[in-house]
């Protein structure tokens, strides 16, 4: 079918995209790798020198790294648990017959389209603020002491904000998967006397397994790089309480101007993300019937 | 009897679903309402939901104080520009992957996807330094370049899944009739792929509009799109709730409406066809 002529055309049409992405991936990454072996501070230009793996030794033994790694895992793990469980619940609910399904669906997915800086600032100031926020007003109305979310439980508060942003995504994917479930199987199981719990555990959950995996892996990629939400709410603090790896590398490079140390951190972040990416690529590769 | 029970069940489900829906939407609704209050009413305790003095002064104020329109246009230019540039590069690539697949097509697709998994902090410093040295920091063109590159894999992948649904025989027939490559893509493929291209455009404009790593790190006063502009409210200005709300409402409303139209494409685009 494909002639030699069209083969040549294929190479030609593919070239721009491949060259651009190859450049985007290789050039900056090679530079980061090179910088990570240098003593290189933007405040002391001209003093760059090769120091081997010293940056890595500093970065990987810095207590801030372990705090950031722990925070990253807590953030990713917390948001994943909440969005996958919440998403299954919401998808099951939205799949039921009720009045105004279309509108409720729009309301539920809306948070996904709110830009990260807006959602973080709205939650921080208008909802969670211990003096003027809505939650504080509700607490006072109930005779309770207002809770200072971002000082008392900073990481959990950020988990809550990010969960609100990603729950719609999980819900939408799981709902799409749920709607492809063969209704006759469910009805047949019901005829055979299977209860609601049995049907959920033995028919619905296995059917959703793939969608759950996809949701988990795709969200992990994005959640490893949560940045704006931290920048505008806590700046990584108090102390290092909400600093994740992404924020730590940002603050090393662009706040402390330590290019060498920041680059070593960047490479560590790339390695961590690749571990997740390998699983995701296998998953998608298996579903790609070429 | 059975009918009545079904109806009661439906009523309970309706109440439950609406409660959940309104709870999820509430922060957005609250922001929109607050944008019409005066600053004093915005922090009043107990807060009022609808019984307040409605005013548009915050909107006028936000524009007057900080040239909101400039940042809005930055967002429009950057998100549309990066998506169109991405389509220009991606259409030919997706054409060859969908209609002239070779032994390595699959590997190339997977490799393109893998670039999407590169964490941005891994390349933050080189990009920042390259941009600083070439004068691209705080420029619209610089942000267009970066956003084109980070969204290119999604654009190629989405176009590929849409193109594959178009029968290749039609393109072949056009080729037999003597159409060149350019005619084949421009006049035969594109008209048939309009819905798919529109979906791709829509989703990528949304993603670019909301992108908040590169826009925050590479822009300052001149080229700041709305993501970075709103972030400036994290300083004490954020205490002006009504103005923060007005700026936020204007930043979110247009893309929220676009987003509501693109639910289906969202699933397809962001799962790379793994869930349909």
From TrEMBL, chain A:
Domain ABC transmembrane type-1: start-end pairs: 69-285
A Pfam family: BPD_transp_1
Keywords associated with the record: Cell membrane, Membrane, Transmembrane, Transmembrane helix, Transport
InterPro entries from the UniProt entry: ABC_transporter_permease, MetI-like, MetI-like_sf
Keyword Transcription regulation part of the UniProt annotation: no
Taxonomy of the source species: Bacteria, Pseudomonadati, Pseudomonadota, Alphaproteobacteria, Rhodospirillales
UniProt similarity note: Belongs to the binding-protein-dependent transport system permease family.
TM helices/strands, residue ranges: 12-37, 73-94, 106-123, 155-178, 208-228, 259-281
Domain of life: Bacteria
SUPFAM superfamilies associated with the record: MetI-like
Predominant localisation class: membrane
Entry GO terms, CC: plasma membrane
Membrane topology: Multi-pass membrane protein
Compartment(s): Cell membrane
Native source species: Azospirillum doebereinerae
Key word Transmembrane helix present: yes
Protein name per its UniProtKB record: Sugar ABC transporter permease
Automatic annotation (TrEMBL), chain B:
Stretches that traverse the bilayer: 12-33, 76-96, 108-129, 141-163, 184-209, 240-261
Main location: membrane
Keyword annotations from UniProtKB, A to Z: Cell membrane, Membrane, Transmembrane, Transmembrane helix, Transport
Every ABC transmembrane type-1 domain range: 72-262
Record's bilayer topology term: Multi-pass membrane protein
UniProt GO BP: transmembrane transport
Coiled coil: none
A Pfam family: BPD_transp_1
Annotated localization: Cell membrane
Keyword Transmembrane: yes
Family: Belongs to the binding-protein-dependent transport system permease family.
Protein's name in the database: Carbohydrate ABC transporter permease
């Amino acid at each position: 079918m494909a002639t030699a002529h069209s083969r040549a055309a294929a190479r030609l049409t593919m070239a721009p995209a491949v060259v651009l992405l190859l450049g985007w991936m290789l050039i900056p990454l090679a530079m980061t790798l090179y910088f990570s072996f240098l003593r290189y501070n933007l405040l002391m230009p001209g003093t760059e020198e090769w120091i081997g793996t010293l940056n890595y030794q500093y970065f990987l033994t810095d207590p801030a790294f372990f705090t950031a790694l722990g925070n990253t895992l807590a953030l990713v793990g917390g948001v994943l648990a909440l969005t996958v469980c919440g998403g299954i619940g919401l998808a099951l609910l939205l799949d039921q017959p009720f009045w105004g399904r279309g509108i409720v669906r729009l309301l539920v997915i809306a948070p996904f389209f709110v830009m990260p800086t807006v959602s973080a600032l709205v939650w921080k100031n208008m909802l969670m603020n211990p003096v003027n926020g809505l939650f504080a007003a509700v607490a006072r109305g109930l005779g309770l002491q207002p809770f200072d979310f971002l000082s008392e439980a900073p990481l959990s508060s950020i988990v809550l904000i990010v969960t609100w942003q990603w729950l719609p995504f999980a819900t939408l994917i799981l709902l799409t998967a749920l709607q492809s479930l063969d209704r006759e199987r469910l009805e047949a199981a019901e005829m055979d006397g299977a209860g609601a719990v049995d049907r959920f555990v033995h028919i619905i959950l296995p059917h959703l397994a793939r969608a759950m995996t996809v949701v988990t892996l795709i969200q992990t990629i994005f959640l490893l790089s949560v940045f704006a939400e931290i920048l505008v709410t806590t700046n990584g603090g108090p102390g290092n309480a909400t600093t994740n790896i992404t924020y730590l590398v940002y603050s090393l490079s662009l706040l402390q101007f330590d290019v060498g140390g920041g680059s070593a951190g960047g490479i560590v972040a790339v390695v961590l993300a690749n571990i997740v990416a390998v699983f995701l690529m296998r998953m998608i590769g298996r579903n790609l019937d070429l | 009897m059975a009918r009545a029970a079904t109806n009661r069940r439906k009523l309970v489900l309706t109440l439950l679903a609406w409660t959940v829906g309104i709870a999820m939407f509430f922060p957005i609704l609250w922001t929109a309402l607050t944008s019409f209050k005066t600053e004093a009413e915005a922090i009043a305790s107990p807060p009022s939901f609808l019984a307040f003095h409605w005013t548009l002064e915050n909107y006028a104020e936000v524009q007057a104080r900080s040239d909101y329109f400039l940042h809005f246009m930055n967002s429009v230019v950057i998100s549309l520009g990066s998506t169109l540039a991405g389509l220009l590069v991606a259409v030919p690539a997706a054409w060859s992957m969908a209609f002239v697949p070779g032994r390595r097509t699959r590997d190339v697709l997977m490799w393109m996807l893998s670039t999407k998994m590169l964490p941005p902090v891994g390349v933050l410093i080189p990009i920042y330094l390259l941009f600083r040295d070439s004068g691209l920091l705080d420029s619209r063109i610089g942000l267009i370049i970066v956003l084109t590159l980070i969204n290119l894999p999604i654009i190629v992948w989405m176009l590929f899944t849409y193109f594959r649904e178009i029968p290749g025989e039609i393109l072949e027939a056009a080729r037999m009739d003597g159409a060149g490559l350019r005619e084949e893509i421009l006049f035969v493929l594109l008209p048939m792929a309009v819905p798919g291209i529109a979906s791709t455009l829509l989703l990528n404009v949304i993603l670019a509009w909301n992108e908040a790593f590169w826009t925050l790190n590479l822009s300052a006063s001149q080229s700041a799109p709305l993501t970075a502009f709103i972030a400036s409210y994290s300083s004490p200005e954020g205490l002006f709730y009504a103005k923060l709300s007005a700026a936020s409402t204007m930043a979110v409303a247009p893309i929220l409406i676009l987003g509501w139209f693109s639910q289906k494409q969202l699933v397809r685009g962001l799962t790379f066809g793994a869930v349909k």
